[in-house]
Write a structure and sequence with these properties.
By secondary structure, the protein is an alpha/beta fold. The strands form 2 sheets. Strands 4-5-8-6-7 form a 5-stranded mixed sheet, with helices on one face. The chain is globular and about 40 Å long.
């Protein structure tokens, strides 16, 4: 699922170039905490498009070119007639705290599942929703496998990642999360 029309076209070209047309299905939709339509803020950087109006947006720290209306679906409703996935990847610039509200059934399924989620406590006005998000994952049996912090822009650009092995509880109490200073890529797994 990808809500940006420009990114959808790039994905389609990539899938076709790699002859994965029969394996990968691309749908132009946003994932959300509830079904309906929502506003997608289109950035000059394709990886910064978001449906979440964060303090970076309001503070004009990310240049947004326009806003478009997109169809939104919860993960639970999208998957209701499908087999639960083995892996879900999300990089949705702060919207992860809302999306989790629409994936309770999926998170609660008994099968093994992995989540690769970029979390953005630094984009939230307060970090309580992020802490609730992490607690929800923990209560549904998820644990962390690896945590990569985005605390140094230049180190990340150079490809020098610092992998940490923190539990979800350690993330919940980590000052970088509670003070909202750093983004993280987190590999969660449920056995």
């Amino acid at each position: 699922l990808e809500p940006s029309p420009i990114n959808v076209e790039l994905l389609k070209k990539n899938v076709a170039a790699n002859r994965l047309d029969t394996t990968i299905q691309i749908e132009e939709k946003a994932i959300a905490g509830q079904n309906g339509t929502m506003q997608l803020l289109i950035s000059g950087y394709s990886n910064l498009n978001t449906t979440y109006r964060s303090k970076l947006v309001d503070g004009k720290q990310i240049p947004f070119l326009k806003t478009i209306e997109v169809e939104a679906v919860t993960i639970d409703d999208y998957l209701k007639d499908k087999r639960a996935p083995e892996l879900i990847k999300m990089d949705i610039e702060g919207a992860e705290v809302e999306v989790v509200k629409g994936m309770q059934r999926t998170l609660g399924c008994t099968r093994s599942m992995s989540l690769f989620i970029e979390i953005h406590p630094q984009l939230l006005d307060n970090t309580a929703p992020m802490l609730d998000f992490l607690r929800t994952l923990m209560l549904n049996g998820f644990e962390t496998l690896a945590v990569i912090s985005h605390d140094d822009f230049y180190r990340n650009i150079a490809g020098i990642a610092r992998v940490e092995h923190l539990s979800i509880m350690e993330l919940i109490t980590d000052p970088r999360v509670t003070n909202g200073t750093t983004a993280f890529e987190v590999f969660f797994h449920k056995r």
